Amino acid sequence: MSLVLSGQGEKTSPLLRVARKYSAYLSYPLAICGLLWLLALPLSSFSRRAYFSENAMMPGQVYTTFGTQSHMDAMDRVDAELKTKDQAQAVEAVFASIGLDTETQEFTYTKVPRIGKHAGTNVHGILRAPRSDSVEALVIAASWTTANNASNVNAVRLMAGLAQYASEQVYWARDIVFVVTDSGEQGIEEWLRAYQGLTTTSPLFVRSGIIQAALSLELPPAKRYTGLGLYFEGKGGQLANLDYVNMVQYVSRLERMPAYLHGLKDVPRRAHWWTKYTSATQLLLRQVRAQAFGLSTGIHAPFLRYRIDAITLAGLPQPDDPVSAVFAHGLFTDADVPAAPMQRQIGRTIEASFRSLNNLLEHFHQSFFFYMLPANQRYVSIGDYIPAAGLMIASLLLQAMHLWWMQGPDELRSDSPHTRITRINAYYALLRATLPSSVGIIWRVHALGLVLLLIPQLIASSVLTDATTTAYLFTMALASISMVLHTSDIYWTRRIEWRQLKSIVSVYLAVVVACLSVMNFSLAVALFVVAGLPLVFTRVCRVDTRIRRALGVLMLVAVSPVCMMTLGMHVLGCSSNPFRVFLADFYRFGSLVYPLVCLVYWPVNLLCMIIVLIQ
Questions:
Q1: β-sheet with 48-49: strand ranges across
Q2: Which of 21, 38, 125, 320 has the lowest tally of Cβ within 10 angstroms?
């Protein structure tokens, strides 16, 4: 009540009086300061040197032994089996010859409802730890193809060698599970659902204990690798524990096979500050893209949904590698596999990592789960980057407060004590006349977003191909614009107070961004940039002519979901339409991007158009 009556000159707290006085001037600077804060994150003064919080891991304290002749023979057995058997049978035969408890899982899945079913096969083998009772487990996973659809036979071969190595040791305190899938992320998701007992269609009978950590391998065709790419983001913005990331980077450098974040190598220490800044910015943008939109960076992502810390190590071929330049999908010959010293370095990196994971006394919990990594072995904690989201949220809230106080005619904001009762009555009369209309148009626009959310389940042909997906998007865009023009020019413009409508929408978007910032900071920032900034600057100047209103609508169309997704095909590097990618991730992995586009981004964009068109 104090907030409501403060706009009519009532006595309120000093804080509200200050906010009323300066809110009109602080909203825009706060939004800009929030963006400048983000631009300052790549600076070295914002980041700190990485360290270990979990001392029990003791990384680099063991003598690695992977690479003996028996390990190489196990890798060669994969090639021999693949010549006479299919992929699943070959891997199962190799695992059984090593002495693992093996099982094959055949499953079917649908990328999107009503689109058709796809079949896949998973094979896993479990090495029972001699010093435990199968209460806990570690996982090594690989797919037959990499995230870039290249052959991943090298990783499967290396996994067979690691299984042979692990079977020869007696110090394991946890079971080790080796998983090979032919369906990428979806295959691992189906395997995890069966492992956790969440599905009955393709159950698993050979199981181990609670999975503590997982590591996936990707080794594209190459003779030599310059290093490893390290990926740690999940589909819903989840991140692996920072201790896990730091440990893998540390032991990889000891084995002279350094793991670089997202495959970006270190900048020399004596490089110019601008070179360091651009390199850190590029790395942060890759992390934001992967974390916000859930783009595929490896088959580790499904593990993070089940609170299992997981990362992907992907080989980085040399630029002039002959095998990498002319690789062919399918089986490799002995001349195509990496050189033995290279296989030994990568294998020992994984060996040292699992020896450290074997030392863990409990689940990862001491280090950060919310962080950003601007450079290798440096991090930005949540306390350093979350103020940017706070500034963006404050910008929306201050503008909402100012617009709420400024709604209605100027007579309602008089400070004269003689008209106090008259002003309060007139103010409540204004709310009774306009508030139902403002809430009604918000509900109508969100109902349109709900239709967009549900229609792919009803009309399967809308997502069959990229062409129909694009046509579907533009059809919805035209329908939305028609709805805006109709409601704004015919009926709603007579009863809506645009300041009131913008105030309500600003509060709504501020709440969404605030809740999202503590779950997925990158997605919250992306939502504010494409929806919050246009809302803040909507009707920042007078739109008293048709030309100005038309220009305002065209600017909002430029930042609409249709245009942003069309642009995203090139910026995000999607092989297909981003709409289709987000839709598939929503149904397969519960990604939040598609619901946010339908129920927040698109409605806010439409409401901004309505605000511009109101006379």
A1: 48-49, 378-381, 371-375
A2: 320
Instruction: Write 550-555 long-range contacts (CB < 8 A, 24+).
Output: 552/609, 552/612, 553/481, 553/484, 553/609, 553/612, 553/613
Q: What is the DSSP letter of 75?
A: H
Q: Which residue has the tokens 């089996």?
A: 81
74-129: per-residue pLDDT in tens?
A: 998 998 888 888 899 999 999 999 999 999 999 887 665 555 577 889 999 999 98
Cα separation, 535 vs 549, in Å, equals 15
Q: Return the half-sphere exposure (C-beta side, CA atoms, 13 A cut-off) of residue 272.
A: 3
Residue 497 confidence class, pLDDT cut points 50, 70, 90: confident
Q: Do residues 208 and 177 lie in contact, with contact meaning Cβ atoms separated by under 8 Å?
A: yes
Cβ atoms 232, 300 nearer than 8 A: yes
Residue type, 100: L
Percentages of the chain per state (helix, strand, coil), in multiples of 5: 55, 15, 30
Rounded to whole angstroms, how far apart are CA atoms 146 and 522? 25
- CA end-to-end span of the chain: 29
Q: Give the whole-angstrom CA distance, residue 251 versus residue 59.
A: 6
C-alpha–C-alpha distance, residues 329 and 325, integer Å: 12
Q: How far apart are CA 452 and CA 53, in angstroms?
A: 46
- Could you tell me if 559 and 566 are in contact, meaning their C-beta atoms sit under 8 angstroms apart? no
For residue 228, give the nearest of 274, 269, 264, 183 by alpha carbon: 264
* HSE of 211, CA atoms in CB hemisphere, 13 A: 28
CA separation for the pair 296, 611 (Å, rounded): 37
Residue with the larger pLDDT of the pair 116 and 24: 24
pLDDT for the residue 93: 93
414 Cβ contact list (under 8 Å, min separation 6): 9, 423
Interval 398-424: pLDDT, tens: 988 888 877 766 555 555 555 666 667
Nearest to 106 by CA among 94, 91, 122, 87: 122
**pLDDT for 237:** 86
Out of 32-36, 99-103, 112-116, 598-602, least confident range: 112-116
For residue 439, give Cα distances in angstroms to 498, 500, 512, 536.
Answer: 12, 10, 17, 19
